[in-house]
Each structure stands twice: as structure tokens, then as C-alpha cells.
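Appendix B. Worked example

We walk through a single record from start to finish. Start with the input: the chain for Monooxygenase, Sinosporangium siamense, length 200.
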Amino acid sequence: MRSSDQRPSPRRPHLPAWSHEQPLEWMLWPPPAVSHARVEQELAQDAFRRVVGRFATGVTVITTRLDGVDHAMTVNSFTSVSLDPLLVLFCPDRRSRFHDVVLKAGVWGVSVLADTMESASSEFARRGRDLSRPLEGYGYRRGSLGVALLDGAVATLACRTSAVHDGGDHSIVVGSVVEMHSGAAETSPLLYYEGRYRRL
Ligand SMILES: Cc1cc2nc3c(=O)[nH]c(=O)nc-3n(C[C@H](O)[C@H](O)[C@H](O)COP(=O)(O)O)c2cc1C
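Next comes the structure step. The output line below is what the pipeline stores for this chain.
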């Protein structure tokens, strides 16, 4: 080792020169500037995810069609809202590519997934997936609004957007139900709880 290597660096005055014995943290020097408020916010978000993850949900694939192209995204924020009129909602993340497409299209389909459809859920939740032919390999029929409704679903609905509300980093998209079907009686739903797929 050259003698100059042992001179303290002005940026790391109290650390010796690198060697294999150094702890990994040494390589992360200088630490990124993270404010106390930012750390608090991330801890609160982690806790929030854990708490709301204890609310068991079903899993849907929401589809839409814009300029003759199908789009689909896995969503568990779907819920029914009103009986008179018939209204449902879901909450797309503003940062997802699906968000602007579904708002522009104004129509969407809901396929409530059966417990045999976990792979469809994973596929339509994969960030950065190829959007050119999303439904290739999946059976579906077109609902009255032209949106795709997946074969094998426990239930399907076709909806027209009736309102969009601000929901922080998500939008709250409310839709009037135009068409609805129940799947075969023996199908059982796919569930999501504490970040994992479950079955009844
Ligand atoms: C079970 C499950 C439920 C999800 N629910 C939602 C949801 O309600 N809203 C949402 O925006 N993203 C939800 N996601 C994540 C999106 O599916 C995922 O971020 C999106 O497909 C990424 O697409 P992008 O590449 O266009 O960003 C869910 C994912 C899973 C696995």
C-alpha cells in the first residue's frame, strides 16, 4: 500500500483506506441526504400498507379499449357503491400507464377473478409489461361497451365512467353499470390478503 493511501481523505476524515475488512456501509459513504420527515413518511407508508393489507379483498382485472387497442390492469380497489343508480368504483394509480387510458376511454370492464386465475392477476400487475397485445393467450368476450371480459371470471361487469374524484396519488373512478353477469356457480374467487393470494 502506498503511503498516500493512508492519508485521511477530506470527505471521509475518520475512515481508513478501503480494504476487504471494511464493513459494507463504508462503501455507501457519504450517506444519501434523507431528511427526518422523509424517513417518517416512508415508515408511515409501510405501516399503512401493513394495516390496510389486513383488509381481505377479491382480485379483478379492469379492461378498457381505446382507439381499437385493449388495455388491462390488475386491481383490488374495486368495490360496489350504489344500488340506485347501479354504481361501482376502482382506484387506478395516477402513475400507472392504465390510468390515463381508462380515463380517456370512459368505458371499462371488470372481471372478478376465479381462484384458478392467479397467473392472469400476476401478468396484468407486472410493471412495464408489453402493452401491444395484452390479451393474447386469454379467452374473453366483448361486452356491450366493446370492452373485454375474461372467460372463467366469477363475475363480470361493463361500466361507463360517471365521475372521477381526486384520491391523492390515485384517482377514484366511479362507473355506471351497463351490463353484468355471474360466472358458473361452482367457480370460487381469488382473494388477496396481507400481500398474498389466498383461496376460500
Ligand atoms: C392484487 C393486486 C391488486 C392491485 N390493485 C391495484 C389497484 O387497485 N390500483 C392500482 O393502481 N394498482 C393496483 N395494483 C398494481 C397494478 O396492477 C400495477 O401497478 C400495474 O399493472 C403496473 O402497470 P404499469 O406498468 O402500467 O405501471 C394491484 C396489483 C396487485 C397484484
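Two observations about the output. DSSP finds three helices and twelve strands in the chain. Confidence is low (pLDDT under 50) at residues 1-10.
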